[in-house]
Model the fold of this input.
Amino acid sequence: MKKTILICLLVVTSMLSAQDKYTKGMQKALQLWGEGKITEASNLFERISMVEQDNWLPYYYNALVNTTASFGETDETKLKQKLEKAQEFIDVAKNISPDNAELLVLEALTNTAYIAFDGATYGMTLSGKVVQLYEKAAQLAPNNPRVVFSKAEWDMGSAKYFGKDTTPYCKDVERSLELFANFKPETEFYPNWGQDRAKEVLAQCNN
Amino acid sequence: MKNYLALLFFFISFALLAQTTITGTVTAGKLPVAGANVYLEGTYDGASTDAAGRFSFTTTETGTQTLVVSSIGYDTHYEMGEVTYFQELNIVLQEAINSLSGVTLTAGSFEAGTESKAAALKPLDIVTTAGVAGDIGSALQTLPGTTTVSEDGRLFVRGGRAEETQVFIDGQRVFQPFMASTNNVPTRGRFSPFLFKGVSFSTGGYSAEYGQALSGVLLMNTTDLPDQEKTDISVMSVGAGLGHTEIWGNTSLSFNTSYINLSPYEALIPSTNGVRWNNPYESMAGEAVFRQKGERSMFKFYTGFNHANFDIDQEDINFEEYVNFRLKNNNLYLNANYKYFFENNWTVYAGASTAWDTNAITVVENDIETADTSLHLKLKASKEFSSRFKLNVGSEVFHTNYEEEFIANNGFDFIAGFDELLWSGFAEADVFFSNNFALKLGARTEYSNLIEAWNVAPRASLAYKTGQDSQLSLAYGNYYQNPLTQFINYDATLDYERTAHYILNYQYAKNGKTFRVEGYYKDYDNLVKYDTREPQFNSNFTNLGNGYAAGLDVFYRDNKSIKNLDYWLSYSYLNTERNFLDFTEQATPNFANAHNFSAVGKYWVNDWRSQIGMSYSYGSGRPYDNPNTPEFYAEKTKDYHNLSLNWAYLIDQQKILFFSVNNVLGTNNIGNYQYANTPNAEGVYNRRAISPAADSFFFVGFFWTISSDKKSNQLDNL
Done:
């Protein structure tokens, strides 16, 4: 009896520690990202994703880390290296989790990074793709706050480019803030960013 | 027993928890690699290297493991071994061959597109450049390496005739890339630019995959997968157009149709330079692209149909009256290709293109009927053995059947024609020694059943990166081409015409600025000559002609220094002479002038929601022969000037109003002189100037795009 309990305990412990490893790893990677250690964070997410091959989240975060780091990058070679890496991880994640609005928003963001870098070169070729990604995301998850907010921010950007009024999109930003407030992540480490940025954008709206 | 078990568990847990520390250094060349990801495959255990390239981490794994070292810009390194031996490792990474920052094999070619860093033009430029009006050929004439022959409209590359440049769509030959036209009525390309994602224009030194072109190749690729469904409507001063794109998952279809009729325009602003239109140019055209993407394959089908007709009276120095010319042209082109990507890095490509082209021409009541059926089949396999070595081998068959019947108004009837089968094979290897040094080596061989002889053409190019943003390239190649239809039609014993290219290129690109300079020498041999004024059935043809072309091309583009302004400058210097056709001695032909310069600018005015474009081109005088002097081709026409403007106004995001004026100043440009065949009573040969049918051209268009996102527009099609 004791032996059985001991074995059970051991098995449970090892299972717990396996799960723990994932949680710890993800926490550590997010912490590194928070500290601005982009390479270390990206590397750790990459190591986790190589083990957890059925989980789209580590891939998602690795792509997110590389995409956000590429905004403001001035060296085109480095920019493309980061964004191509991001796209690679998005592609794998989409295979694991098809029809996932979070991944479509991230892909739109990755393409936006190219346009932000050089609008004349990438604007005409990629903006159609970005629009299509947001549309598909909105069909899949019309009440996802990131979908609503990212689409609104993109629409404001293109309206500004064409010298149009941006205020019609402010109500979308407002709606996204309501959705952010009521958003419940499906799982641990489920994407949960965007609220702060939405507040900033809304503040500009009210100016 | 209990104690024994407890002890066992203790040891097992101990073994499980026993940790090994793995340490080492990662370097590339002599320098440390910081930020590399070092880990045991299949585990969380790993670390990133520090600024000195050092790493250290602990693991509880035991036995044989694989250590992975990966870093952006380097080939991933794998090391298998006992964990305990992973101590103070010295790992040397090989730099990955990078198509973005590495050296590229680009001598001689200009690209339009976003894919390549060698891109000189962006897809948009084809349509937003003043004076170009969506014609791919005209856009390329703003690049160096071409000469301005404004009354013709085709591409004249580095001292070569227009026929020396071939056009390919998705790797397949286009047999009649330009609209049917007549003397001094400039032609346009048959394609609408927005079905293509990229254009690569090579003015020399091109790959062994392309043959039957002495001077240049224009490679156009249709778009892979369109982003969204949309409908494009255009209403223009010269006609109307309709386009639509439909997408079903990985399958999509785009079509584009247009109707052009110059009657209203000619009624309002008649052409004045020695022409009278009885029935101005009218054309009906349709194009379609179908694409299907599979898991590992891509199928594309492109087709274009075009019907054109016109009836024109043209001045001719040899006749009192204007000479009547009537033409009806039908052209159907089909192009299908299939690509399959195998898991072992082999790619197989199979393609076929075919064209049916018929002309019914009437020149002063003499009828000429021509029918041309052409076919191109291509099978190609390429393998990427590593990022450092690529191989490309293939075989092609070209079949041409040409028939021409001439019926004179006096009843004289002459039928000519030929049937040709040309086989070719090519092999080429790309070798990247490092990110700084690359070599392309290839050869092409051809056999024509008409010429009954083989030709073998070696090709080579070398590229060396001289700095972070600059590179130096060298290219050499031999090029063969069959004699033109109108010669081989009368004499099938003619041999291939031949040239050799020697090219030296320097390119610098940084922060939106591109500078390139290219020097070249071309050696022509075996050119066709004949002993009559015009090639005809009783001429004596030989291959005794020859010639050379040497020159310098300079290009500079800057889209960053001044906000909202994008501009480029091109200059070409050309020194060429040849003895060919009916030439009595070596001379510079009429289509080759010494200096060509063009400046193109585009300015986006945000407050006006407008893009304003300007382009100016200059060409020095073109040589012509004056039979009143003993010298041959010794005189030159006056210089060529053309200032064009355009204005695109965005009414809203999907509606655009577009105005353009070609040759605003109305400069009367003279390309050549036609001299009388016989002298007049005073013993002088009379002449008349040859100019484009009209000096200036005005265009107004309204373009409307209907798409679900309400954002796309046709600014990229104008």
